[in-house]
Write a structure and sequence with these properties.
Blueprint lengths: L18 H26 L3 H18 L8 E3 L4 H10 L2 H25 L2 H6 L2 H24 E4 L2 E4 L1 H20 L8 H15 L6 H5 L19 H8 L3 H19 L4 H23 L4 E3 L1 H10 L4 H15 L2 H8 L3 H25 L7 H16 L3 E3 L4 E3 L1 H15 L6
Antiparallel strand pairs: 1-4, 2-3, 5-6
Subcellular location: Membrane
Main location: membrane
InterPro entries: NCS2, Xan_ur_permease
């Protein structure tokens, strides 16, 4: 068998670029993650400046815990969007942040178990037949949010169809699609950012943008950090049930990213510094985000794409992107500019992004050759999808117990996989 020829990296993991190159390459990674990282807080009602700050803090923490051996960037996770919206609406933002904190503890437990028993037990607990449909649920569950943002305008608390909104959303969607399929090189890795910029320009021409907030904002402004354990009595059971089951998806996503990253860089990060260390680092980053009021974090495929294209694997470049994200989070006018992005622009981008999430779940089923002609696989995937997309929930009002749809779907999938006979056809 012919050995695979690897291209030599331009900058390896521990190599330092000169100052000018460091700034340029770091900003490139910042742009790659920016669109998606900012979109999550906008959708969930969290602060975009806090999301940027916790993204930077989380990445620096990750690099520290992994001993500077894994060139990865951490941004806002899409998997937690629905439970954050649900908890923020039915309870408060602090409850959502508490749930994210509890989900981060799962990472610590899993890291300890991997250290003790290896990783095979985790892969058996979360096979593609479970994780794939859950990812489909995450994408399809967010679809109504994207369409609502794309076409409805809220007037006096009432949502009304707005043709101008919808046309702006479609223009944004068209620009994003064009960038993702027609462009090459680095531009192909940032279609979300280019779509937002293009949609923003269209919105300005359509008269949907008011710059007064940017004019009034100070240049320096501390992000509005939110500490979940100070301002209210914790509702531990509700927060845990809504958020903790989602960790089974994001941990699986983390493992996938480590495998891809190992392939791109040509180093086995699963062994050195070890999956246990990288999972722990991801969990600690998520913990910091939850304690400061930012969306839960995850390693970003967008930035892995940049690594693959540029062949520049330096952790100093990834750390530089994190530093620049931190700096931007304290620039008041920049945060105000983000807040002026019209709703239909984010709706147009979200139509594609959420569809891609759902499609990636289907892709996992195909890539892993999950045979849906086998009754067992068909049952597991069907139950997960219908429970999740249908909005089923387990609720006992007398004891204030509530298990929302996505969590119920995830737990049901894990249990069905554990107890259904393997030879059931």
């Amino acid at each position: 068998m012919q050995e695979k020829v690897r291209l030599k990296p331009i900058l390896d993991v521990h190599e330092k670029p000169n100052m000018l190159l460091w700034v340029t390459l770091s900003l490139q990674h910042l742009f790659a993650m920016f669109g998606a990282t900012v979109l999550v807080p906008i959708l969930t009602g969290l602060s975009a400046s806090v999301a940027l700050a916790t993204s930077g803090i989380g990445t620096l923490t990750y690099l520290l815990i992994t001993r500077g051996k894994i060139p990865a960037y951490l941004g806002s996770s899409f998997a937690f969007i629905t439970p954050i919206i649900v908890l923020s609406t039915t309870h408060n933002v602090q409850t959502a942040m508490l749930g994210a904190f509890l989900a981060s503890l799962v990472y610590g437990v899993v890291a300890l178990l991997i250290t003790k028993f290896g990783v095979n037990w985790l892969l058996k607990l979360l096979p593609p037949v479970v994780v794939g449909p859950i990812i489909v649920v995450i994408g399809l569950g967010l679809a109504p949010t994207a369409v609502d943002m794309a076409m409805n305008k809220t007037i006096d608390g009432v949502k009304q169809y707005d043709l101008k909104y919808f046309l702006v959303a479609m223009a944004t969607l068209a620009i994003t699609i064009l960038c993702s399929v027609a462009f090459k090189g680095f531009a192909k890795q940032i279609p979300v950012l280019l779509g937002i910029v293009g949609g923003y320009i269209v919105s300005c021409l359509a008269g949907l943008v008011n710059f007064q907030a940017v004019i009034d904002a100070p240049w320096f402004q501390v992000p509005s950090f939110t500490v979940p354990f100070v301002t209210y009595t914790p509702e531990w059971n509700i927060a845990a049930l809504a958020m903790v089951p989602i960790a089974i998806v994001t941990i699986n996503e983390h493992i996938g990213h480590q495998m891809v990253l190992s392939e791109v860089v040509g180093k086995n990060f699963i062994k050195d510094p070890g999956l246990n260390r990288s999972v722990l680092a991801d969990g600690v980053a998520m913990m910091f985000a939850s304690l400061l009021g930012g969306p839960p974090s995850t390693t970003y495929g967008e930035n892995i794409g940049v690594l693959a294209i540029t062949r520049i694997f330096s952790v100093f470049v990834l750390g530089g992107a994190a530093v620049f994200a931190l700096i931007l989070s304290f620039i008041g006018k920049f945060s105000a500019l983000i807040s002026t992005i019209p709703t239909p622009v984010m709706g147009g981008v979200s139509i594609l992004l959420f569809g891609i999430i759902a499609s990636s779940g289907l892709r996992m089923l195909v890539d892993e050759k999950v045979d849906l002609s086998i009754n067992r696989n068909l049952v597991i995937s069907s139950v997960i999808i219908v429970l999740g997309v249908g909005g089923a929930m387990l609720k006992f009002e007398s004891i204030n117990f509530e298990l929302p749809a996505m969590a119920l779907a995830a737990i049901s999938g894990v249990l069905l996989n554990a107890f259904l006979p393997k030879d059931n056809k």
